[in-house]
Hints:
single chain; Heat Shock Protein 90; 7 helices
Amino acid sequence: MAGFAHEISNPLSFVISNFETLAAYLSIFKEIIREINYVSMNRNKNDFYIFFSLWNLLKIAYKLDFMYYDIYNLLTETQIGIERIKNIVDSVRNFAWIENEENFREIDLNACIDRALLLSKNEIQNVAFVEKEYTDPLVLEGNFDQLVQALLNLILNAVHAIKSKQLDKPGLIKIRTYSDGEYAYCEITDNGIGIPKKNLESVFDVFFTTKSFGFGTGLGLSIVKYIISEKHNGDVFVDSEQGVGSTFTVKLPLRQKGY
């Protein structure tokens, strides 16, 4: 909870600060309107030169050109901050849902992937082609919705990595499944921007993100790790080369102990 509070407080603090600045600007605009009204009541309303001169004086006195520019930036930053808070809250809500969901049954891992691909269709469109190489069927014991969520997060992570590389043509996401008789495996490979070596050990940490501020919560991959490792007694690995791409490998037991 301490980490959650810290992540929320950061964007919230500058949202509050921005609103305070906007409120101060509003007071300035009210003062300008008051002065214009005062002049209009005591001068000939048709005296254009008076109003033009007054407006130029007010623009200089109150630095209106700067204010116009700054208001746009403040609103943009505030929107980013609010979106980040919303994304963090939504992701934490996902944690709560995962924690309370224990409905395990026999499921097809390939069907989980296909559902995740369907849910991410709009994100993938015009960004990447998808190649599938399935071992079919690939039945294991698990929670269908939880695994769909984990695979969806990995697919979206691949999409964002490709977007970040700014290719002049669609990228490629390869999805491969196979089994060794004890575990089922799913490999998701992209030709995106890749992950620096120094960050490989941290990618699954809660709130860790390499994305620009406002564009990532740092919870997507930590949710993947939690679902795969904690809820399904499996594991997830990453292999990546910066500038070349990444492969995330999900390892899941075919049978759950005590199921």
